[in-house]
Amino acid sequence: MKNWGAAVFLPAAAFALLVSAPAAAQEKTGNKAGFSIAPGTARIVLMRPSVKVGEQSTGGMFEPNADWTAQARENLGKAIAATQGRLGNIVVDYEEPNGADTAAVAEYRNLFSTVANSVITYQFFPGNRLPTKKRDDAFEWTLGPDIAALPGMAGNDYALFITTEDHYGSAGRKAAQIFAAFAGVSVPTGVHKGYAGLVDLKTGELVWLNADLKMGGDVRTAEGAQKRVEQLFEGFPGRTGIPQTVTAGN
Amino acid sequence: MAGKIAGALIAGMLVAAAPAMAGNSLVAPGSKVQVAKSGMSIRSDGEWNKLGRRLGPNTETWTIDGDELNDVTFYGGIADGLPIFREVDKKNRPLPRVSSTMLVTDIPTLFETSYRIAYDTPLMKIDTVEPTSFAGGKGVRFTYSFTRPNEELHRKGEARAAVVGGKLFLITYEAPTLHYFDKTLPAFRQLADSAAF
């Protein structure tokens, strides 16, 4: 996306802030027409979540923070593990391959985040929806059918991708907010992206997505991470609350 | 100091809010349309979405799934002395300018430098350059690859360009290398082949 300047194409986060008026209410969940999973019928492989945490500089730029990212990764990992058995179907952790395949898996994680960004920008915001995405029941998004060829995918029905990215306002950013407030202008602080998506391994299609740029829960804390995970799995297909037996690696 | 920062931020917010949220529109299959407010016309065999927002006064972007996944941008007649798209930081990192006397082989370098500045990244390179015909005249075809800052997804691009009547005409296509680039490449080439004045 050519998002190199404020006056040109806008990144999803900035776009969301500009169209936050009630008239352009954002949708947060989408699923492919006719898609559903009955509880206890599917085997889902959970990809390692993509987690980024950092600070938002005074000018709004993202500055990654390795300590916060490590904390968040641990907190979210525990919260997901605690939730995994209550998703209505068997959810197993993906066993990351070695060598060249590591890069291929990472590229799919990146592609998922980019596809989710596009869904938010061009489908979830009705005012900016692409004409070809406006048709009845149109939720046509894909990672491509080759995802099924990744090592370890055989025998699974769906891949579950999770992306979180949190930008916490720096002291300078917060000061700027206060000055801006005096001038009657809103300077938003923080980005709290959370995406969870299911990909059908038979087709590569994204069949369910829950995505929001303003998720709750401070992922740097255990409680906050639990809250974030609950929000990520809201409306998860086939979820019943009945625990399923999970055998990792099988 | 903080006042200056707040002032700059407020100004930035106002600039960001300035472009009208012009709607996106459908390009129907079989249609022949003038693009990028120029004399260049394109015939589309397939269905595209034309984005309401522009990179610059003489540009136009078409997409199928959003410009992050498949992006065809038409640069229609960029005149001598102008950058190919809007400046991002004119004071510190000015964009290179089109020259009416430039050779077609200069175009890939102009494009590469513009992207490196706009994305503020060295991770942009031209992969191949070869002569081609463009709207019936002499032109250049080049391919490129890049990643954006704070993002690891690899992207590829293909472009065709020519200088016609002292102005730069350029058509670019770019998409993630994984799945998307190859999927939409034939549709892009059909558009580029149809370019006419």
From TrEMBL, chain A:
Signal peptide feature range? 1-25
Q: Does the keyword Signal apply?
A: yes
Q: Which UniProt keywords apply?
A: Signal
Name under which the protein is recorded = DUF4136 domain-containing protein
TrEMBL record, chain B:
Q: Which UniProt keywords apply?
A: Signal
Signal sequence segment: 1-22
- Highest taxon, organism lineage: Bacteria
What's the protein here called?
Answer: Uncharacterized protein
User: From which source organism is this entry?
Assistant: Edaphosphingomonas laterariae
Cite the source lineage.
Bacteria, Pseudomonadati, Pseudomonadota, Alphaproteobacteria, Sphingomonadales
